[in-house]
Fold these 4 entries.
Entry 1:
Amino acid sequence: MHKSFLIYLPSVLLPRLSSFVLILVGSHYLPADQFGYFSLIVVIGEFAEMTFTNWTRISLTRFGSGAAMLPYDLVKRTFSITAACSAFSVLVSAAVIFAIARENFTTVFACVATYIVSISLLRLGISLNQCQDNKVAASSIESVRAALTLAAGSALMVFYHDFLYASLCGSLFNIVFGILSVRIGTARTTKEKDNSVDLKTLLTFAYPLILLAMFSYMITSLDKALLKSYYDTTTLGHYSAAFTFARSGFDIIATAFNIGGFVVVSTLSNQGRHDEVPRFLSRQMAHITAIALPAAGLFIGSRQALATTIFPPDYYDAFVTATPIIAFGAIALNIKNFVYDNAFYIKLKNILQIPPLAVGAGISAILGVVLLRAHPLMGAAIMFAAGSIASLLATALLSRRLVDIPLPLKQLAASALLGVIGWGITDRLQAGLSTMLSPYLILALQGAVGGAIILFSTRMMAKADRKALA
């Protein structure tokens, strides 16, 4: 498990790092409206591609994993269905672009269509290698692609100040490395094995995954789509930069815990040790919040220094206004995804994830209609946070029928208290030293205080774990 984790680690971190650095470069070297279009292309492309095409890759992994050489019929059918789904995704994206970005329809559509086709090819090729346990090829291709996309995309932003070149450059690298990954993966197929998976089975497998993806992306992306439809790409650019910065760190924290955590939960369930599953998931929630809640306090208290030192001045208001709300929405969504959703996975009841996501998506949409016209930045952030929290609460209630996960109340209270203390100290540092020290020094002091509090929180959790296991 550790070997597999280390092999895949670069392919997980580098794409995230690449996206994060491109946000910083784009916010500095692209005009705000151009950066807004750059963000919109990713939002629309990811929504359409992941909603209507991702299920084909999951089905390939589900029905093809474990074989040294995949059946050629299965791979061929998956490629044909993926091509059809990608074409449908492009049509859906065209309708969305016409609705919210018709003033620049041709250019945005060209970028989104190229993005969808290229990313579908790349992701299918990587999935083809992963399900044949070709870890090194899959990880290497994704890591090198991310590094080259970062370097070339940043250079194009710096020299041309236009979203078009950076977007098409990323898609070009997707196509090149997608073709490479497909060639490597298809070299290990065989025509000697019969394919027992028919189209009806694949479609039955698909429809819950499509609904899950659609509602999930409504919670995480509808705020940006409605913001663009009510306002302009400049407002969207400001908000998108704040959203990405506020959410990314919390996603990495939770994902890091769940990489090994889900394996442990699955093992406990497969071995019939069902009584241990709720306790483990409760501890996982405690560990995630032991870092996330103090980190949120640090983030909120230091957001003014962060906005001043990292982003251009015109991004300041969006960053200071939206990021505290987005941070709590990100924490809620990660607890849902990496604690309570595990109950559905181990009980093979994935379809039960749909109602909580539908509730969250509906609340998000209603709040968007009510709030966005009067309060664009705060309204968009509230959309995301409220949808995430509603989905978390609904998931927690529904999952109790399957796995009754106890709330680690003492640990949650301690983590929340440390978060409040961290916020109070860092906020006072900002207020007391803003006229005396540069924002960089203030941020360094705030980081030192926040880091010490997070370290203390994790030590408390480690001590609680040792006591529980004693």
Entry 2:
Amino acid sequence: MYLFVADESGNLGITSGTSSSYSLGGYVIKEADLPHATSIWKKVKVALGSSAGKEIKWEHFFVEENPLGLNFNQAAKRTVAAYILKNLFEAIDLLPLVAVVKKDKADDDLIGRSRKGNPKLKEDLFLSGLLAMFAGFLGRKEARGRVIFDSAGTTKDMERQQILSDQIQSLHSGKLPNHIMKDLENLLLIEEKISFMDSKNSEFLQLADFFCGVIWRVAEGDEALMGIFDDEFGRRAEKEGLGLLHLL
């Protein structure tokens, strides 16, 4: 069993005062490797001067405040965050699976409307793309998978569940054209029910929050660090059909 552990950073709105980018996703890991991943993450937190039971957020490396007491300037803290992830991905058998979009480069196909009529990114397109990549990965591994999300509240959780359920039910119905059925059939390897959990009580979700948050913050304005992520994390993952999905 493989797990796709996911979170989001930024917001979907495309109006004044919103973020300039958005990221959705996290990483893929064998379920049996979760205890090891949790152990490594706890060691990282202790090495940074925190406690094993305290949540470290990506914000700690990208704000002027210094709650961790890190002895680095602001630019160095961003680099430290990047290399923390590099070491994590080397120490743990993790594969990144994240969609990131710069809003000013998003074309019309990626933009919809909120209930109030304001322009916003279409999260269903991002999540559907990530689920398709995860499903393809499972097909190559001849394995099954499950999706775990940091809970974003009842409404958002239900919307995300509906996206996966609709795709799986459309396959079960047998009403899709054969060529589409063939492309999507690996989605049946994913358990239909998404697990929604609170990252405050889950070390492995904290890791997804950290990874997704750092990717988002880097996309907000540090192209050099984004290059580090592509080079260090993306290349190996791409060989498995995963990686960083740039939706520009």
Entry 3:
Amino acid sequence: MEKNNNTLAIIALIVAVLGGLPGIVSTISYFQERAKSHPKLSASIPSFMTGSFFKDKDARSPDAPGCHILLTLTITNSGDTPIIPEIFDLKCKVGNRWYKFERFLIKDDIEWHSEMQKISLEKPSQKDLQRYKKPITNIEPAYGFLMFINEELSVSELRKIESIPIQLTCEDIFKKKHEIKLELPLNQDQQPTIYPKHGVSWEYIYGEK
């Protein structure tokens, strides 16, 4: 596919040279349409949650290795070509190092134990974007959750940072990768929050006993 695209580009340049001004105009139009036809993904993350993730149930310290990130997000496609996602991957930059987070499928019976937040998710497995296999188009975005885990970092390390640079990668059903770069601000608004389209709500409860 890439070889064919390069061949078409060379032919278009030859036409431009031989055709003078009309050829140049046609070539510019060709490349504009070609760029427009590609999918172009972006994401908005109205809220996210960081927490501990332990394989060993006895290791309950926030300083122990093992953390998770749950993203509540909307993925949009401003290009003219629909995209059907296959998988999503996540990398986070902590200090000078990029850490890969592993994909984690969300189940309906998943429980979060938090002294900081009251968390309510409505049928989270049905909104897990790792399971989303519909086209994302310029008129039909995808709403839902993505959860990732990392066994090296502790949640304490994550929460020391004011803002976490992340790279979210969507691999489509044709194995083409689409990267989305964002930052997660850890100084989030601590007001009670409800996102009806995502089916999520949570409330900070600092100071409660």
Entry 4:
Amino acid sequence: MDLINRVINTGKEKVSHRMSSAYQSPVSAVRSLAPLFLFSLLLIGFLNGCIPYTVGSTAQTLPPDEVTTAASFYIMPGVYLLGDSLKITALGMDGEVRIGVTERSDIGVRFIAAGMGFVVNYKYLLQGDHSGRNSAVSLLTGAGLINTGDHFHFEASLIASGAQDDNLTP
């Protein structure tokens, strides 16, 4: 019987020890989550913004002296007209011209009709080639004036894309 009591008491002590070490006061719990919370706020602050102007662009660059055009259509859910008295949903359309500069780089100019502005960007091929037969990774940076010159736009994107075929570009 003495052996059984010792086993039971030893088990109680182990459970009690685990519970006291697992318990965390609300203040210390908040303190331990504070870095994660601050990092999340910082991340959200950097991730919000307007439509990226690289939507629909692949990582492959154009061969030197080759020119291509593209168009983007999108819906803007909250556009103010007449100051701030009328809010509507509007359709936007942008046009882009890209020109191959070197074997690994090209330059693009996007004309933003809905935002009445322009963005000039430079794409540099980090990995792969411009043939489209292989996957590629590029860095795209750019700047411009948008919203009738009210805002300066800056962009930096890392673009990765798979091999292209006639039907689908991943």
